[in-house]
């Protein structure tokens, strides 16, 4: 079997190629719904590795890139799953080098998506490229799968692909940032828009009833009260604490002298194991229905933006054990298995086919994804290529 020492040597010998791969991805902007150009970069690099590429897309604007490497013997299917989209640049702060610089400086690689999750994507892509170049012959196949629109729930990515069986496999890794920890689980997510409307009216006088902005404020206050009285009292989970409810955006009105005829706000609810999307939705609607029962003007509509399931991988599963062993052999440090609040396409995939797929990536997973100076440490990135390679070897020989 290939050893960690051999693999680390090969990664170091190809150090510049590995860095160049990530730099190119970072220099190709790919905010959500703008993934066409980045899909071309992934496709070209996979093909350069000698692996055929297939694009699965509900429309040309929503590409999902697949490259499957088949060994000479039948066997199991290992899936690397990542997303191509990244958060938009931080409004009003372009960072030290600009959001799409791909700048290598002070031991880091900078750019939008460096942490979440082009660093993980590039590491998986280079891991497969280098293993193939070394002559490794997987028993079965290794699938590189890069999704669109993960940051807004994966409607055109994993949620569209998984029901078709295109992401069926035996085990895998979702390369989300995890600070090097092997994440066996994360909380579920329910995100919604709530919309209120009101008759149009000039602001020279008070609105005859309530304008849409006023309705939104009343609804938000009621949900905040619900959070204080109910959510905080939910039994604490040892990994996640309790559930959380956040009001994240509010949009209402078109002009300063006209009452808002429409207003909407978004809710981001992070669930803990044992909660269901249906139950959480019912609780939120019960709060707002209470307002409407007192005042018929307070009727509303809602739209589900994202309903990510909880991810729960058996910590004694072979893939978790292989990840931990590979991490320790490559880095010389004890692996940490953890769980956290968050969300990933791995949970969507597992909900359809039960595949054990931990989240595992080198980058910091708390500060970096939303920082204007998003970055990944060069050495951490290179180590992640090596431990991804070694995990494949352990699982596919």
Mean pLDDT figure: 96
Shape descriptor:
elongated
Oligomer kind? single chain
State the major sheet: 5 strands, mixed
Q: DSSP strand (E) fraction?
A: 15-25%
Q: Reading side by side through the largest sheet, how are the strands ordered? A: 1-2-6-3-7
Number of strands: 15
User: End-to-end distance, in Å?
Assistant: 8 Å
Helix content: 25-40%
Note the total helix count: 10
> Pairing-aware structural class of the strands and helices?
alpha+beta
Contiguous uncertain segments of 5+ residues: none
Give the helices and strands as they follow along the chain: HHHEEEEEHEHEEEHEEHEEHEHEH
Radius of gyration: 23 Å
Descriptive account of the structure:
It is built from ten helices and 15 strands. It has helices at 4-13, 15-26, 36-48, 114-134, 158-161, 212-229, 277-294, 318-331, 345-353, 378-396, and strands spanning 53-57, 63-70, 73-83, 104-105, 108-110, 139-147, 171-174, 182-186, 188-197, 244-252, 262-271, 301-308, 311-312, 337-340, 375-377. By secondary structure, it is of the alpha+beta class. It is elongated, with a radius of gyration of 23 Å. Helix content is 35%, strand content 23%. A hairpin with a 5-residue loop joins strand 1 and strand 2 (63-70). Helix 4 crosses helix 10 (378-396) and helix 8 (318-331) packs across helix 10 (378-396). The chain has a five-stranded mixed β-sheet with strand order 1-2-6-3-7, covered by helices on one side.
